[in-house]
Write a structure and sequence with these properties.
heterodimer, A: mainly alpha, Non-ribosomal Peptide Synthetase Peptidyl Carrier Protein, Chain A, 49% helix, globular, B: alpha/beta, Rossmann fold, Luciferase, domain 3, nine-stranded mixed sheet, 23% strand
């Protein structure tokens, strides 16, 4: 799980933050409600998770709340990894 | 009783001078939007009234009175004049919805310069194209967004000043200037530029089917349209707490997120944080919002979270709801009536070019769910036959939405593109210039949308008349996306179209052919998506990419987007005789 968190956190840092902002994000940092990831960009984050972990995340579960932190994202992915 | 009262009576007895009565305007007053929205309101004895109730992410909040609005907009005006900015210069605001955005908007107008607001989620290429087109002289931005400016600055010879309005001044680079409005010496009275009705005010960029985005230029005279529609359509009153959810990077966020409400001296709220339904309801409850102007995409996202969530909040302060950006589906209208104590969202229709609401459902008038409503009093609207461009008289027949030119908030030109401006007017002479076109009441201005009119005079939206993609209420140009797509190392050719989406009405889908040596894969699809998101914006990012062997083209080699779009929407493909056989 921790490895997954690290991977997802690193992806968020690489893709959605500028160079000197990485210190500000942790596993519990709000991503959607803070505006780091907007609703359109959630689509690419979801695609990354599906590609990386070979899962299908149903649209009805890929909500702003479920994608709001690295912790909640990883919980959702785990649930669908079987 | 609503401000508009009887719609029919207003239509019969209409004059734009009513806007002056609503504002209690005296002959000889200074027509400068920056001053009207701040100094003038203070002069009417409302200086201590809240103007802006602001909340950001993480519990940050601030409140500003109209006195504050005056002093802080004066500070921006004084600072910009000190920096050598002159009337007519284009000054870009590139920020999230922070208070300085609102202060600087008015401050720029106070020196007679032109505000160029740009959506802060734009990537560097979207930003560069718009700054280059406008030959923008200064940009006001934040520590978060200045990084994008740095990447393109050397290619923008006209960009003399880069001003950062927050953060740590020690982290600025080169000749960037730090400006903290709240620490600037207070300017109680500022010598506001003596603008007149035709002085340019705001330059909003909007996307078209072909070519790069065009700058729709507005003038200070727009205030009459914006103030009167805010009064009659949004029904704003002196004691309202008003929330316009739009970002001032787009026209709704300036016409109705700044100019309309503040010209009337109305208190407004701004929420600068990411969207969640719970956060929005909490914001309404905490601030006792009474009038709420939002967008179908947001309303449908709220619908997804259901009516039970609504019940957890006290939203009894709400009294009027309106919507703009794309057609509001009937289900959303009915749902809002069910969950917001009988209040239904009133759909409104207008566009960047019109500057103010043109067709709307009005307070007190029966809403036909799914309809755009009726033309604003004083606006002559019609639908024109697709071939002959004659007004259609038969109810239900689909044509082009068109308006007789001459309303106050009409755009005055596309920045340095009189040819494109001319192309928007049916029946225009080939050599007609913008000033003639915008006042010639024998012409029709064509909006680019299709609709029908029913027997009761209600307009019903059908769709765009071109290839522009309306995603989440924002227009995205396919050409801009395709140009960016072919810059990706793997892509040979590309076409971008809209595909149906439950929340955003449509989203971008790209069809691409790959260069030799590249194979289709999920990883490549994600890489292309992120490439466009960073280069242009999240709105422009294709949410699906389809790899194809070849793209449908005419014999002259032009990509036939309408064919691809029709397939996505399950529509008739139409005449394919011009397609190449290759």
């Amino acid at each position: 799980m921790d490895e997954m968190k690290d991977v997802v956190l690193q992806y968020v840092i690489d893709e959605y933050l500028e160079e000197d902002e990485e210190d500000e994000v942790t596993y519990d940092s709000p991503l959607i409600s803070s505006g780091i990831v907007d609703s359109f960009s959630m689509v690419s984050l979801k695609k990354f998770l599906e590609n990386k972990y070979k899962v299908k995340l149903p649209d009805e579960e890929a909500t702003p709340e479920a994608f709001d932190t690295v912790n909640s994202i990883c919980a959702l992915v785990k649930k669908h990894m079987g | 009783m609503s401000n508009i009262g009887s719609y029919e009576e207003r239509v019969k007895n209409f004059s734009w001078d009513i806007a002056k009565e609503v504002l209690d305007w005296k002959d000889g007053e200074l027509l400068n939007i920056g001053a009207i929205c701040s100094d003038r309101v203070c002069g009417m004895g409302k200086g201590s009234k809240p103007a802006l109730i602001w909340e950001g992410f993480g519990g940050r909040s601030a409140r500003y009175t109209f006195d504050d609005l005056k002093v802080y907009s004066n500070a921006f005006a004084g600072f910009l004049r000190e920096q050598g900015m002159e009337p007519g210069d284009r000054i870009c605001i590139f920020m999230d919805k922070i208070p300085s955005l609102y202060f600087s908007f008015l401050g720029i107008l106070k020196i007679g310069a032109i505000v160029q607001p740009l959506f802060s989620a734009f990537g560097e290429e979207s930003l560069e194209v718009r700054l280059a087109s406008a030959e923008t002289k200064a940009i006001l931005t934040t520590v978060k967004h200045v990084k994008k400016v740095r990447k393109i600055r050397e290619r923008l010879p006209h960009l003399e000043k880069v001003v950062v309005v927050d953060g740590n001044p020690d982290r600025l680079k080169g000749d960037e200037i730090f400006f903290d409005v709240e620490k600037y010496p207070a300017i109680k009275e500022f010598d506001v530029y003596r603008s007149d009705s035709e002085t340019p005010s705001v330059l909003h960029y909007t996307s078209g089917t072909t070519g790069q985005p065009k700058g729709a230029l507005h003038v200070h005279n727009s205030i009459w349209g914006q103030a009167l529609t805010a009064n009659w359509v949004l029904d704003l009153r002196d004691d309202d707490i008003y929330w316009c959810t739009a970002d001032p990077g787009w026209v709704t966020g300036t016409s109705y997120g700044i100019i309309g409400p503040w010209s009337l001296g109305v208190t407004q709220c701004v929420l600068d944080s990411g969207f969640t339904s719970a956060r929005w309801y909490q914001f309404i409850q905490d601030n006792k919002v009474s009038v709420w102007y939002s967008a179908p995409t947001a309303i449908r996202a709220l619908m997804k979270d259901g009516g039970e969530l609504v019940k957890k909040y006290d939203l009894s302060s709400l009294r009027h709801l309106a919507s703009v950006g794309e057609p509001l589906n009937p289900e959303a209208v009915i749902w809002s009536g069910e969950v917001f104590g009988g209040l239904k969202f009133h759909d409104t229709f207008w566009q960047t070019e019109t500057g103010a609401i043109m067709i709307s459902n009005y307070p007190g008038m029966e809403i036909k769910p799914g309809s755009m409503g009726k033309p604003f009093p004083g606006i002559e609207a019609s639908v024109l036959d697709l071939e002959t461009h004659e007004p259609l008289t038969e109810p239900g027949k689909v044509g082009l939405i068109a308006f007789r030119p001459g309303w106050p908030s009409m755009f005055r030109q596309y920045w340095k593109r009189p040819d494109i401006y001319r192309s928007k007017f049916v029946g225009a002479r080939e050599d007609a210039m913008p000033d003639e076109l915008r006042t010639d009441k024998s012409l029709w201005y064509v909006s680019g949308d299709r609709a029908s009119i029913d027997a009761d005079g209600y307009f019903w939206f059908v769709g765009r008349d071109d290839d522009v993609i309306n995603t989440g209420g924002h227009l995205v140009g396919p050409f801009e996306i395709e140009s960016a797509l072919v810059e990706h190392e793997a892509i040979a050719e590309a076409a971008a179209v809209g595909k149906p989406d439950k929340v955003n009405m449509e989203v971008v889908k790209a069809f691409v052919t790959l260069k030799p040596g590249y194979e289709p894969s999920e990883e490549l699809e994600l890489d292309i998506m992120n490439f466009i998101r960073k280069k242009l914006s999240p709105l422009a990012m294709p949410q699906e990419i389809e790899y194809v062997e070849k793209l449908p083209k005419t014999r002259s080699g032009k990509i036939v987007r309408r064919y691809l779009r029709a397939l996505e929407w399950g529509e008739e493909v139409g005449d394919l005789s011009t397609l190449s056989d290759e």
